[in-house]
Amino acid sequence: MFTRMRLALIALFLMATVGHAAAQTSGAELIGYAELPADTFAPGPDSGQFEGNGNKLAAPRFAGQPIQGFSAIQFGTQAGSYWVMPDNGFGAKYNSPDYLLRLYQIAPAPKTLEGGTGEVAIDARFIQLRDPEQKIPFMIVNEFTRDRLLTGFDFDIESFVVAADGTLWIGDEFGPFLLHFDATGKLLEAPYATPNFFEGLDPTTDFVRSPQNPANLAGAPQPGAASVANLANSKGFEGMAISPDKATAYPLLEGTVISDTAGLLRIHEFDLVNQQFVGIAGYYQLEDPKNAIGDFTVINEDEFLVIERDGASGADAKLKKIFKINLAEQAANGVVAKEEVADLLNIADPNQLASDGVFTFPFVTIEDVIVLDATTILVANDNNYPGTGGRGADVKDNNEFIWLKLATPLTLAEGVGLAQ
């Protein structure tokens, strides 16, 4: 009897231990890992010569253009390749006039259980965003040049989708605007302003505007007067998803419009066929109003993935998660249903691809997610070059890419994922 009791106690202990170990990870498993060194550069003019207040330094800090700050990802032209889009450069409008807005094509070779170098190859070709036909109705840095290459002073690009015709729709934060480019990076129309669909307003004349919106800058208030901006700085279209049929884009604001309840983010609906905003598809509820979203990508007609993150990094990071939302399931106030699918601070790494068993992704900005198949997603960070803090107070953050196997399969629409 003593032996049976002892065995039972041991069994209970083992069950509790296994349960505790399982609780240490989120159910997502690391199955691939790659990184691009922070100090990776592309040809172009030297950059980084301006401070946050616009003051010009004696010389540029960097030779060429840093390939960094990836804020969006889509499938590339060949199997295993991806288009990645850096944001405005150095984190603000006034320190980025010498940073050129581009999309780069990369080909990671992830470290997996079967092998792989963990390195990321950069295609020599890139897409340079430009406005040679003068579609932009306000002054840009390269206003009086032939090609009118766009810079991080002109727009803060954060999200993009590829339409059925191969053109690019890019979400900006300075407007916030939607920008429409052809496949070579040429701007096709004037920036699309964001209508304000708040009850009682006229969305044809009332707009959502950030402090950096050119209309606000042109009519800046007198000292002591309130700003006419109704969206906080750097809170524009951080995420944008596209419907499986590629007829609709869903630009998602990173911050709350001042008329809305704190922590509610507008998910806009944009008709790609008729090229117009339709309305609000729903509201995303942040876990904490101080949090922000990092990216937004499609699963099927109703379901999408959203990265949500706090504003900390390293050991101070408390929330870096991926949620699944459902536009077809909404509360009375329009808030969409959501459920957690991955905790990026708590990822199982049983094969020790990048850790001793539990991998963390503690970067201040995690801004890239794409669905590869029903159980696999690819996630990457925006390293805010030459920012530090994710892997150490004095360590420059690399661009890291992680392939995650989800515990519960996603229900993919036809054409979503690698199968497309």
Notes on the structure:
6% of the residues lie in helices and 35% in strands. The protein has one domain (26-219, 228-405): 5 Propeller (Tachylectin-2, Chain A), CATH 2.115.10. It starts with a helix and ends in a 15-residue tail after the last strand. The strands form seven sheets. The chain has a five-stranded antiparallel β-sheet with strand order 8-9-10-11-12, with no helix packed on it. The protein has a four-stranded antiparallel β-sheet with strand order 1-25-24-23, with no helix packed on it. It is globular, with a radius of gyration of 22 Å. A hairpin with a 4-residue loop joins β17 and β18 (303-309). It is built from two helices and 25 strands. By secondary structure, the chain is mainly beta. It has helices at residues 2-23, 214-218; strands at 29-36, 41-42, 65-66, 70-75, 82-86, 102-109, 119-128, 157-162, 168-172, 177-181, 192-195, 207-208, 237-242, 248-253, 264-271, 276-285, 292-298, 303-309, 320-330, 336-343, 347-348, 358-359, 368-373, 376-380, 399-405.
Q: Count structural domains.
A: 1
**Percent of residues in helices:** under 10%
* Mean model confidence by pLDDT: 93
Secondary-structure element sequence? HEEEEEEEEEEEEHEEEEEEEEEEEEE
Q: Categorize the overall geometry.
A: globular
Quick one: how many beta strands?
Answer: 25
Please tag this protein with its features.
Tachylectin-2, Chain A, 4-stranded antiparallel beta sheet, disordered N terminus
Topology:
Elements: H1 2-23, E1 29-36, E2 41-42, E3 65-66, E4 70-75, E5 82-86, E6 102-109, E7 119-128, E8 157-162, E9 168-172, E10 177-181, E11 192-195, E12 207-208, H2 214-218, E13 237-242, E14 248-253, E15 264-271, E16 276-285, E17 292-298, E18 303-309, E19 320-330, E20 336-343, E21 347-348, E22 358-359, E23 368-373, E24 376-380, E25 399-405
Antiparallel strand pairs: 1-25, 2-3, 4-5, 5-6, 6-7, 8-9, 9-10, 10-11, 11-12, 13-14, 14-15, 15-16, 17-18, 18-19, 19-20, 21-22, 23-24, 24-25
